[in-house]
TrEMBL record:
InterPro entries: Thiolase, Thiolase-like, Thiolase_C, Thiolase_CS, Thiolase_N. The active site is at C91 (acyl-thioester intermediate), H343 (proton acceptor), C373 (proton acceptor). One of its GO terms (molecular function) is acyltransferase activity, transferring groups other than amino-acyl groups. Residues 265-386 form the Thiolase C-terminal domain. Residues 5-257 form the Thiolase N-terminal domain. It comes from Microlunatus elymi. SUPFAM superfamilies: Thiolase-like (SSF53901). Keywords: Acyltransferase, Transferase. Belongs to the thiolase-like superfamily. Thiolase family. This is Thiolase family protein.
Length: 388
């Protein structure tokens, strides 16, 4: 069986996903194009060799419509012969792009492929593509009581795993502390391409404390929802949730043989993949069965892994995952997660992979796990191995 390897990774710094954010003046296709160009220049690869561009993006409307993967590839100056497609697996879209890319290499369908993602939440706001309509309406017969938004799912997770507000706020504060420390130490520098004068993640709030976060009001309080779910204690706030964010990231993936032919030194290889569906009411818990499936397929245990990137859509998501696997909290999002670093939806999967590869390189770790919860009740998970 062929081996799929990661040759290099690159991401933008994050920008606040609102007007005036550091990246808000840049068209999302141009934002991704800059990362693609940077990755091509950094690796020195002939762009004619790229066989496909697989791009994750969630809000595929407005400036992100009409297959932004192809638009960004052309904007980056890639040859017209290089195709592109855009994938929507909600928050895991660009992680799924990486899965598809690596699986295509393993199957022999590709030798060289680019997996990437982009989301400009300042220019294409979340839910703006719904046009005022309920996307879950066709599911009413199967779920007569109705589905809920992700913030309520996070509240239900907090209740089920008995995660109280102080625990969530402490986790969020630690995410900011770790991210701020990594920024200060310069450990993100090798994975970030500067965008104009913007070089660091704008969403980090150094000095954040659990005591300060405790002053914030619950973000999703709804008396009607409270009547339906009397177990909700209303613990989720803007402070223990990921912020709206702009960003892009890209990963160059190829077969081990082609990398050797081109004289390129791979940084990591793909070990195992998993994807699963889960209860769309508790839509953020799919990372748990996905991880179980992944560990079974890989033959590895949680203790064999040197780092876990579990997307911090909301604080209870990684905390529930950590409890289920009794995972080492020091290995969980060791340089902070999306609560501090931001969650540019369709770009986050590639962004996390960029950081995971970089972290394993810097620490000499061998195996890293990445998993992401996804809207509608799904999850992706994968394990990579650093190569010397």
């Amino acid at each position: 069986m062929r081996t799929a390897v990661i040759v290099d990774v690159l991401r933008t710094p994050t920008g606040k996903g609102k007007p005036g954010g550091a990246l808000s003046d840049i068209h999302p296709a141009d934002l991704l194009a800059r990362v693609i160009r940077g990755l091509v220049e950094r690796t020195g690869i002939d762009p004619e060799l790229i066989e496909d561009v697989l791009c994750g993006c969630v809000s595929q409307g407005g400036e992100q419509a009409m297959n932004i993967g192809r638009t960004a590839a052309l904007a980056a100056g890639l040859p017209e012969s290089v195709p592109g497609t855009t994938i929507d697996r909600q928050c895991g879209s660009s992680q799924q792009a990486a899965h598809f890319a690596a699986q295509g290499v393993i199957a022999g369908a590709y030798d060289v492929v680019l997996a990437c993602g982009v989301e400009s939440m300042s220019r294409v706001p979340m839910f703006s593509t719904f046009a005022g309509k309920n996307p879950y309406e066709p599911l009413q017969s199967r779920y007569p009581d109705g589905l809920v938004q992700q913030g309520i799912s996070a509240e239900l997770i907090s209740a089920h795993w008995k995660l109280d507000r102080p625990t969530l706020d402490a986790f969020a504060a630690e995410s900011h502390r770790r991210a701020a420390q990594a920024t200060q130490d310069g450990t993100f520098a090798d994975e970030i391409i500067a965008i104009d004068d913007h070089e660091t993640d704008e969403t980090i709030r150094p000095g954040t404390t659990a005591e300060g976060l405790a002053q914030l009001k619950p973000a999703f309080y709804d008396p009607a929802i409270g009547e339906r779910f009397d177990e909700i204690d209303w613990t989720i706030t803007a402070g223990n949730s990921s912020p709206l964010t702009d960003g892009a990231a890209a990963v160059l993936i190829m077969s081990e043989e082609r990398a050797a032919q081109l004289g390129l030194t791979p940084r990591a290889r793909f070990v195992s993949f998993a994807v699963t569906g889960s209860d769309p009411l508790l839509m953020l818990t799919g990372i748990i069965p996905a991880t179980r499936k992944l560990l079974e397929r890989s033959g590895l245990s949680i203790d064999d892994l040197d780092a876990y990137e579990v997307n911090e859509a909301f604080a209870p998501v990684p905390l529930a995952w950590q409890r289920e696997f009794n995972a080492d909290p020091q290995k969980l999002n060791p340089r902070g997660g999306a609560i501090a670093l931001g969650h540019p939806l369709g770009a986050t999967g590639a962004k996390l992979l960029t950081s995971l590869v970089s972290y394993l390189d810097r620490t000499g770790g061998r195996y890293g796990l990445q998993t992401m919860c996804e809207g509608g009740g799904m999850a992706n998970a994968m394990i990579i191995e650093r190569l010397d």
